[in-house]
Each structure stands twice: as C-alpha cells, then as structure tokens.
Amino acid sequence: MPAIVWGVPLALSAFGLSPKIMFAVIVPLGLAWVLIGGLGSLMIACPRCGKSLFMRGFISVPWPAKRCSRCGADLTDCLR
Ligand SMILES: [Zn+2]
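Above are the sequence and the zinc ion SMILES. Below is the predicted complex in structure-token form.
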C-alpha cells in the first residue's frame, strides 16, 4: 500500500506535473489508505466470540484489547 501512495505521485512528477496536481493526488490516496487501514483494524475481532477488539463497552479505542472483554480469551496470539 505505501508503494501505491508514494509511487503514483513519483510517477506523476516524472511526467512534469505541478506540485498542486500532485497534492490533489496524494491527499485522496492518503485518506483512502487511512480509511482502508481503519476499516481493516475494525475487522479484527475475537476469534472465540467475534467481539471487536477495539470496543470497550460502549466506547471505541484505537488500540486492541489484550484480553476479550466479553469471553476473556487471550487475544495476543491473533494480533501477531
Ligand atoms: Zn471473545
């Protein structure tokens, strides 16, 4: 994924495009990368009960739990 984010602007600069056009390309690509990464991390769930590792009760946190808050399964194995 980083190769796509940085490779496209570099390829465009090789064609002599202005920095403004490159910026218009880099920002959407960066946002798409963050969104895909964020959605991917939300897809990580407890292998035993399917609970999202990023949910603590009613709040969402940006780091995964070491132990499932619902069933108590050790989650450090599935994060490696
Ligand atoms: Zn669980």
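Helices lie at 2-14, 19-42.
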